[in-house]
């Protein structure tokens, strides 16, 4: 399976912070925002990743992530000239996907949970259909909302409903089989002129090929697209890391634990980070001081 990191858009809800910098390059505590969804794709076992961003911002992502070899990855890049919807990513990446199954992670989403990699790898290994993850929120009208019947089966997905039928929001992480490019090519722009990911998911739902995994209370999902949610995400990461010593959303650590890189490569990455707390934590991990 391949993975797309969609990091485009103009970040208008974060102006003036995003007038001169991509939203997905803003810091979430001690790491760039894009590190968190990148780590999520890596935890799913995905090593071929395409970063899609604006023509203006793409050079900065190349500078940050390079070709991915230092993380045991293969990273490609593509431009999204105008933000014409999340599902547009599959059309931009059509040739790169090349008939493979493909996951997509939004560049401003953070998911953290125990044993998350197990659920992610199960979704990546599913041979047919699509898998999305749903999370209970207080303000479902801001998201794509999925509702369920009495047996717990997903029955409807609606984008930003005025009167939501449930409080289960579809998170910014999607797994699709090899049909995704053809389906994305068939959907029409919505009233706001975008190729909606909800419309793509609805095609899978209506053909009984959509799997919805409900994230439990022990999971955290944060959409860091507003000043408040950006601060909440940073505070969450700082709290987890300072109280437990565990790293959150760190591609170098994930690459090492997934055996994409060895201790020598991790040690080299730690040295590049200098005398930061993150660099010290990675060096300790490379030296075997942390299990």
Automatic annotation (TrEMBL):
<keyword id="KW-0808">Transferase</keyword>
<feature type="domain" description="Nucleotidyl transferase">
    <location>
        <begin position="2"/>
        <end position="238"/>
    </location>
</feature>
<dbReference type="InterPro" id="IPR029044">
    <property type="entry name" value="Nucleotide-diphossugar_trans"/>
</dbReference>
<comment type="function">
    <text>Catalyzes the formation of dTDP-glucose, from dTTP and glucose 1-phosphate, as well as its pyrophosphorolysis.</text>
</comment>
<protein>
    <recommendedName>
        <fullName>Glucose-1-phosphate thymidylyltransferase</fullName>
        <ecNumber>2.7.7.24</ecNumber>
    </recommendedName>
</protein>
<keyword id="KW-0548">Nucleotidyltransferase</keyword>
<dbReference type="GO" id="GO:0046872">
    <property type="term" value="F:metal ion binding"/>
</dbReference>
<keyword id="KW-0460">Magnesium</keyword>
<dbReference type="InterPro" id="IPR005835">
    <property type="entry name" value="NTP_transferase_dom"/>
</dbReference>
<comment type="similarity">
    <text>Belongs to the glucose-1-phosphate thymidylyltransferase family.</text>
</comment>
<keyword id="KW-0479">Metal-binding</keyword>
<dbReference type="InterPro" id="IPR005907">
    <property type="entry name" value="G1P_thy_trans_s"/>
</dbReference>
<dbReference type="GO" id="GO:0008879">
    <property type="term" value="F:glucose-1-phosphate thymidylyltransferase activity"/>
</dbReference>
<dbReference type="Pfam" id="PF00483">
    <property type="entry name" value="NTP_transferase"/>
</dbReference>
């Amino acid at each position: 399976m391949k993975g797309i990191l969609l990091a485009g858009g103009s970040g208008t809800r974060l102006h003036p912070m995003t007038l001169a910098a991509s939203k997905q390059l803003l810091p979430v505590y001690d790491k760039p925002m894009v590190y968190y969804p990148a780590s999520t794709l890596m935890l799913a076992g995905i090593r071929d990743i395409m970063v899609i961003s604006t023509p203006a911002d793409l050079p900065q992502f190349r500078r940050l992530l390079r070709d991915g070899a230092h993380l045991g990855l293969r990273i490609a890049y593509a431009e999204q000239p105008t933000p014409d919807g999340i599902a547009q990513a599959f059309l931009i990446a059509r040739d790169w996907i090349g008939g493979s199954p493909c996951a997509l992670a939004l560049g401003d989403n953070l998911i953290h949970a125990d044993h998350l990699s197990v659920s992610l790898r199960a979704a990546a290994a599913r041979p047919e259909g699509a898998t999305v993850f749903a999370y209970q929120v207080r303000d479902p009208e801001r998201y794509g909302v999925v509702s369920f019947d009495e047996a717990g089966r997903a029955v409807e997905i609606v984008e930003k409903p005025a009167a939501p039928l449930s409080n289960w929001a579809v998170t910014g992480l999607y797994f699709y089989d090899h049909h995704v490019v053809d389906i994305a090519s068939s959907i029409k722009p919505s009233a706001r002129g975008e190729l909606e990911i909800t419309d793509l998911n609805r095609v899978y739902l209506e053909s009984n090929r959509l799997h919805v995994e409900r994230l439990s209370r022990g999971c955290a999902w944060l959409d860091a697209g507003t000043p408040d949610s950006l601060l909440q995400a940073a505070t969450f990461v700082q709290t987890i890391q300072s109280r437990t010593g565990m790293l959150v959303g760190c591609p170098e650590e994930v690459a090492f634990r997934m055996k994409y890189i060895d201790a020598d490569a991790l040690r080299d990455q730690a040295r590049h980070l200098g005398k930061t707390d993150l660099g010290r934590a990675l060096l300790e991990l490379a030296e075997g001081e942390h299990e």
